[in-house]
User: What shape does this take?
Amino acid sequence: MIEVRRAKHSDVTQIVKYSRQAHEKSSFAEIAPFSPAKARKNFTRVLGRPDFAVFVAERDGELCGVLIGSADEMLQCNAKYAVDIEFYADGGGKELIDAFREWAKALGCRVLMMADSNGGRTEAKDRFYQGAGFDYTGGVYAQKL
Assistant: This one.
C-alpha cells in the first residue's frame, strides 16, 4: 500500500537520493553534475515554506518517491517528481500528483503544470499524465550556451 505525506527534515537524505536518480536521467545531466550538497540545501530550505510543497510516497515504510512543487503569484503550480523504478512500473506517481493537486487547490491555484526533463514525449508518458487529468500543452525548448 502506498502512503503519501508531506516530507520532513528526516526525509532529506532519501529525497536527495531520488533527486540524483532523476538528474542522471534528465536533460540537466549534460548541463551540470549533480551536487548532493546543493540538493540537500535546496530541499532543506523549501521544507515548511508556504509556497512550496514536498510530498513523499512510502511503501511498507520505505520511501519510494518524491514530488516537489511550488505555487506562484499567477496561481500556477509547477511540479516535478522522481520515483524508484519499481514504483514507477506499478504506476507510481499518481498518488503524489493527487496530493499535490489537493495542496494546489487549497491555495487557490488555477493551473497545475508538470515538467518532464527525461526525454521526449512518449505514449507511456501521455497515458500516465492524461490518466492523471493533464492535457499536453507543448514541450520546452532549450539551447546550450
